[in-house]
Design brief:
The chain is mostly beta strands. It has one helix at residues 4-16, and strands at 34-45, 48-56, 66-72, 78-85, 96-103, 109-120, 126-137, 142-144, 165-173, 178-186, 192-199, 206-213, 222-230, 233-240, 257-264, 269-277, 285-291, 297-302, 318-319, 326-331, 334-339, 347-358, 371-380, 389-396, 401-407, 412-419, 429-433, 441-448, 451-456, 461-466, 476-482, 486-495. The chain has a six-stranded antiparallel beta sheet, with no helix packed on it. Strands 4-3-2-1-19 form a five-stranded mixed beta sheet. Beta-D-fructofuranose binds at residues 37-38, 54, 65, 97-98, 114, 166-167, 223-224, 285-286.
């Protein structure tokens, strides 16, 4: 049964989404119309990849949360599907917050999400309660489960919070024939913790353990957890609120962290050994992964940051998009990210140069564009003299320029979008550390209109940021050094989506 609220959202989307087409990037997911945030339910269903997302179709600001819906066969070309969930039930009357999805053995698709409801206290304060709900469907239409919520305050430890209890990420463990879910929570010290629950049928759940907790070390509330094995390690990812900066690793505000360690299935204990930021750019939050049938662990994230969402063009019709899905691996105890390999199927014209000497600002024939996949390899001309910096200038015209600068002496890369169309006084510059390499570096840059995603040294670091340029004419690219020269190889493809 489609509720009036859901039908209204579907009709609204159908009526207005075409007007937003001119604002859309080529190959990154956007909402039909209005606002989107976190990716939800990123999963495989009947051989296709489904992605849902936090959605408020009626405005370009956050509001009562629905779930929007798209699917794809290759992570690049997406098909829009009707709105999947509206906040139309008692258990989610104030919002269907983030969650996840899987295919049940009987062929139905299960969505697990956070239902939100508000309660007015006698002293006038409004409190928001969060609990976990289910919806079951066929890949297009979903029925809310009659016994929602399936996890609420009565299922969590005494010192856990029923107010901050959200973002369930569900999976099925084949060996154990059990379903598991991790949910973000806030412990007694006010900082984040990740709760683990289990179920034999995905409908009836029991608390298992506190998998890990923040102890005020990495931000406060831990949102949007995900938990999976990868290359012999166990990975817990989460998006902390209220992070404090630590060197160049973590910046203030909304961050993302990957905790790498081991998981003992017997005791259900996760032992954390390494902690790192996931993305070192500006616009990246709430990542979620899926396991593809070919064994790849693929991650997608909201290409935004809560602190900058007010900084948008007047009268825009859509606000928010997703990152390019990224393949994850682990190397030398680091999470490695690279664009999904399917991107290569959309490579258009190739432009290739080898051993280009860069000792001043250089433009190269055929190297320009705003929808590109470009890899640049830099090496010093000789071992004795290290250059001061190398710059890759993107989206250039007389006035604008996005800069990626590598400083070999400090082992840092800087992204700088100060001159990229924004008139807001927000973060435009960020530095991050890369592996020392005697001045050699590989930078892969994927641009899609107003987004830039950088992958350093085959994905050892990733950095994502948005530009605020009005049109695509700012498309020049140049290369520059100071204090020495480099040799550069470059391979550049236009991305062409038919
Ligand atoms: C993260 C988040 C989630 C929540 C959702 C609400 O960006 O705050 O914790 O479920 O957004 O839209």
């Amino acid at each position: 049964m489609i509720s009036e609220k859901l039908q209204k959202a579907r009709d609204f989307e159908a009526q207005y989404q075409k007007y937003a087409d001119e604002e859309r990037p080529l190959f990154h997911v956007t909402g039909g119309i209005g606002w989107i945030n976190d990716p939800n339910g990123f999963s495989v269903y009947k051989g296709e990849y489904h992605l849902f997302f936090q959605y408020h179709p009626y405005d370009t600001v956050w509001g009562p949360m629905h779930w929007g819906h798209v699917k794809t066969k290759d992570f690049i070309k997406w098909e829009r599907l009707p709105v999947a969930l509206a906040p139309d039930a008692e258990a989610d009357r104030n919002g269907c917050f983030s969650g996840s999805a899987l295919e049940l053995p009987d062929g139905r698709q299960l969505l697990m999400y956070t239902g939100v409801y508000h309660v007015r206290r006698t002293d006038g304060i409004r409190e928001e309660f969060q609990h976990q709900c289910l919806a079951i469907g066929d890949g297009i239409d979903y029925e809310k489960y009659e016994d929602n919520p399936v996890l609420d305050a009565s299922d969590i430890p005494d010192d856990a919070s029923p107010l901050d209890f959200r973002d369930p990420k569900i999976w099925y463990d084949e060996e154990e024939n059990m379903y598991y879910v991790v949910v973000g929570n806030r412990a007694a010290d006010g900082s984040g913790s990740i709760l683990l629950f289990e179920s034999s049928d995905a409908f009836h759940w029991n608390f298992v353990s506190v998998l890990d907790a923040c102890y005020n070390d990495y931000g406060r509330m831990w949102e949007c957890p995900d938990f999976f094995p990868l290359d012999g390690k166990q990975v817990l990812i989460t998006s902390p609120q209220e992070m404090k900066p630590v060197g160049l690793e973590f910046h203030a505000g909304y961050g993302t962290v990957a905790l790498l360690g081991s998981y003992d299935k017997e005791s259900r204990r996760f032992t954390r050994k390494h902690v790192q930021a996931i993305d070192y750019g500006i616009d990246f939050y709430a990542p979620q992964t899926l396991l593809a049938p070919d064994g790849r662990r693929i991650m997608i994230a909201w290409m935004q940051n809560w602190t900058t969402t007010g900084c948008k063009k007047q009268n825009c019709r859509i606000m928010g998009s997703m990152t390019l899905p990224r393949e994850l691996t682990i190397k030398n105890n680091r999470l490695i990210q690279n664009p999904v390999r399917e991107l290569a199927n959309y490579h258009g014209r190739k432009v290739f140069y080898e051993n280009v000497l860069i000792n001043k600002e250089v433009n190269l024939n055929g190297i320009r564009g705003r929808h590109i996949d470009m890899t640049v390899d830099i090496r010093p001309v000789d071992d004795r003299s290290l250059y001061s910096w190398f710059k890759l200038n993107l989206a250039k015209d007389g006035e604008h320029c996005a800069v990626i600068r590598y400083k070999p002496n400090c082992n840092t890369v800087r992204i700088d979008r100060t001159r990229c169309g924004s008139s807001f006084d927000i973060v435009h510059v960020r530095d991050f550390l890369v592996r020392p390499s005697g001045g050699k570096i590989r930078l892969r840059v994927v641009m899609d209109g107003n987004s830039v995603e950088i992958f350093v040294n085959d994905g050892e670091q990733a950095a994502t940021f948005l530009l605020y340029l009005d049109d695509l004419r700012a498309d020049c690219i140049s290369f520059e050094t100071e204090g020495g020269s480099v040799f550069m190889d470059i391979e550049k493809y236009d991305i062409v989506i038919d």
